[in-house]
Input
Amino acid sequence: MYKSITYILILSCVFLTACSDENTNEYVIKPTAQPLDIPPLFNQLIINPIIPIDNPQTVEGIALGKKLFFDPILSVNNTQACASCHSPRNAFSDTSQFSDGVNGNFGTRNAMPIFNLAWNYDEKFFWDGSVFSLEHQALEPVENPIEMNNTWETVISRLQQHPEYPNLFTNAFGEGIITKEKATKAIAQFERTLISANSKFDKYLLGEVTLTPEETNGLNVFMDETRGDCFHCHGSPNNPLWTDNKFHNNGLDATITDLGLGAVTGDPADNGKFKSPSLRNLAYTAPFMHDGRFQTLEDVINHYSEGLQNSPTIDPLMKKVAQGGVQLSAQDKADLIAFLHTLSDPSFVNNPAFQN
Amino acid sequence: MKKIIAIFIVSCILFSCSEDNDDNLIAPLPQAAITFNFTHNWDGTTINNNNLQTETVINAHGEVMSMTRLRYLISRFELTNENGQTYRFNGYKFTDLSDETTYNFSPENNNIPIGTYTLKFIWGFNETDNIDGAYTDLNSASWNWPAMLGGGYHFMQFDGMYNVNTTAMPYNFHNGTARVSMDVFEQNFAEIVLETPITIINNASIEVKMNIAEFFKNPNTWDLNVLDTPLMPNYDAQKMMQENVLTVFSIGNITQ
Output
């Protein structure tokens, strides 16, 4: 008796479920959810990433975004993709100080690396924070005259006539025409999957490896207010983003010519402020600073140690500006660089899922 | 045996349904929902996200100062009524003066009976709460206090320039656990007790005023020319901040 009831229940469940799925598939194309794979350290230490409610991560959306990211179809003359200036092998940054646009023009800012962007809680993107949200950020380079120099109208037209894209958009976003909003949503989905959390220091925090004495001293220099004092802007073992994603004037110039955040807010108190970049993957992201002025990490450390320039908006955290900087010893400089290299993540730049 | 188990289970269910001790209280006092609204001033001049970076002020020692950044942490809010009954509110308040959305604090468990109360809270975290890396929102805000100084979290980060009328110099007025010597640390939180009676007759927003100037005034007149930066590893500076914070807060308007 019990066996009969059990069989009936099982069979009912199977048939009912199967039928309902079939009906759904017949009428609606529904992309497959693919939530971000949040690294254990991030899960343990920091708050959840920002995923817009109207752009959830899906298998089809991510795949479409990846294809768009690597496709020169976005540029006016079909020569440049996002990846042209955001190279996967360089943690999605550009080894050139300024990137070479489709017409051979150069900008004034160094291409930013792309990783862990879903954890940019304030959602202010670009060096000057001029755009809110990753979806909106992706709109800009396509139409920037010194970058892709295209129009979204042209891009949409090309995508619509393409043999593959219309189906890919339908699979990702359902029926309907292709729009720039859908295109940038897909690109943003792909970009959010670009997660870097497997550096030597991550493994150290997980108890899998040990640091050398030099790296340990470098960490202490980083965390010591009387020496490097890097942690106020660049994270700490408890903030594995290694950036505060805030804007600071870090004493690059006595006379501010590029206003940075100040040009965006219109507030003179913000002049010369640029976003703190993450210190992850420095091994791959040279040159450094918003204008790519420093070729090496040694140059960067020397700047903070002896090269600070005073200006009206300099951040007070550049506390030794009157002496030119924090005056690190040669040993502390070398050890600090050794520590910084433990934040680089070879598995990120070699991840086949992130290559074309 | 089965019967005994069945009786036991039925008994448990019956007992769980019995009245609580407080079910028969006659006419309980009406409840009021409490929120806290923090305002900030420098000896009466309002400081908020609009003028934080533009206002210049003069501290008790006479230095003309500007402010760039002011963030602070308080915890363990408690209201105690005239009968000595204390209502403690969960959570902590992390305030960033550049972000006015952080000025208000609405505890999750914010209902108390109407009555007259006094407010008490902890400046920073006490020893129980100041656990290194334990709070994901504070880690995300880069609010950590270095392990070499005892770990846990900042209580305050106040950055700016002083002597801005002559030769401007940076100050980093950061407060947290005090380091006595290498690997020896001393807790440095402060219990803020505000004696002003707060009469609650309805849902209320309690204004708590922070007079930033008091950090430099009482009981220690702060000389930024001597103590500007670095202050985090400076034991004496840390203990002076702990003393000076006691007069920083006061009760303002009660809106209800």
Summary: Confidence is low (pLDDT under 50) at residues 7-19 of chain B.
